[in-house]
Design a protein that fits this description.
The chain is an all-alpha fold. It is about 75% helix and about 0% strand. A hairpin with a 7-residue loop joins strand 1 and strand 2.
Length: about 325
């Protein structure tokens, strides 16, 4: 009897061990499959992002012009940053563009999303959404050429319309005063449709039952927006602000095609300045130093936004 019990225990133990080995083998196979699926993305990330960043950090400490081997110069490129007035000008231009584009893109994107989220015929809804999103699909450089034609002082359509209502023509692209507003205007037209889609997804994620309960309590339309819609889309708003701020700070093609950074350096952005240092003057080491400063600024702004988001972003 005792021998039979011992054999039964041994059989059960053996079965449990075999089951554990099968589960472990299955788990290992699933993990291996997962790693193989993400391997291409990881390789692309390493080759096209991690390695260039590391190479750029090394170039910061060298004098390199693409034609001769890099020459180690220590901290000279970094110390040059603090005395470079042109870099400060381009940073100031980028900051003004970033503030203007971020505010207008998010405000207009939210208003457009609230507009197309209202009840309306299906055909009209899809027509409006497509129309507002259409500029996002067009290449930046090609539309910048069109906008350059629209904003031309002598033959531009916009100045023609201004003159028809008795206003003087505005030197949109050739004036120090109007160059940056022109870049912001084009960026808003190009980008607010993308933010509209993101805000629309946020609006459609608000539970309808909250609106119905508030309406039963007699809430007005403004109160519905103020106390239900806006608080519940703050995670979407936070995401939109972060990506639009980072994108606006790196504006290159808009300003390059519209104004080429001019007049003078009036609309030259920090991305254009890095391009000029690297591929026109072939000062790769100093261009890497400026790029590193931009990376530090963007990371600092993102961390600052993450810290500030705890006070106004509400998660369910």
């Amino acid at each position: 009897m005792a021998q039979t019990a011992i054999e039964e225990v041994q059989r059960l133990t053996s079965t449990a061990q075999a089951r554990a080995r099968r589960e472990m083998r299955t788990l290992t196979q699933e993990r291996l499959s997962g790693y193989l699926f993400i391997l291409p993305a990881v390789l692309l990330l390493i080759v096209f992002l991690i390695l260039p960043i590391l190479a750029s950090i090394v170039l910061v400490f060298t004098d390199y012009n693409l034609l001769t081997p890099p020459k180690w110069i220590g901290l000279d490129n970094l110390s040059r940053l603090f005395s470079d007035k042109r870099m400060m000008t381009t940073y100031w231009n980028s900051l003004r563009i970033t503030i203007g584009a971020t505010v207008l893109n998010n405000v207009l994107g939210l208003l457009l999303a609230m507009g197309v989220n209202r009840k309306m015929p299906g055909v009209l809804r899809y027509l409006l959404r497509t129309s507002f999103f259409f500029p996002v699909l067009i290449t930046t450089a090609s539309m910048a050429v069109v906008w350059r034609f629209i904003l031309t002082q002598d033959r531009g359509i916009l100045n023609y319309l201004l003159q028809q209502i008795g206003l003087p023509p505005v030197p949109w692209l050739s004036s120090v005063r109007w160059a940056i507003p022109s870049v912001i205007l084009y960026d808003v037209w190009k980008s607010c449709g993308y933010l509209m889609v993101l805000y629309l997804a946020g609006l459609q994620g608000v539970p309808e039952v909250l609106y119905e309960a508030a309406k039963i309590d007699g809430a007005s339309r403004w109160q519905l927006t103020r106390y239900i819609t806006l608080p519940l889309i703050t995670p979407t708003a936070f995401f939109c602000i972060v990506i639009s701020l980072i994108g606006a700070f790196q504006i290159f093609d808009n300003a390059y095609v519209l104004t080429e950074g001019g007049p003078g350096d009036a609309s030259r952005t920090i991305a254009m300045y890095i391009y000029e240092m690297a591929f026109k003057r072939y000062e790769m080491g100093y261009a890497s130093a400026v790029a590193l400063s931009l990376l530090i600024v963007l990371v600092s702004l993102t961390l600052l936004q993450l810290w500030g988001s705890r006070k106004w972003v509400h998660y369910e």
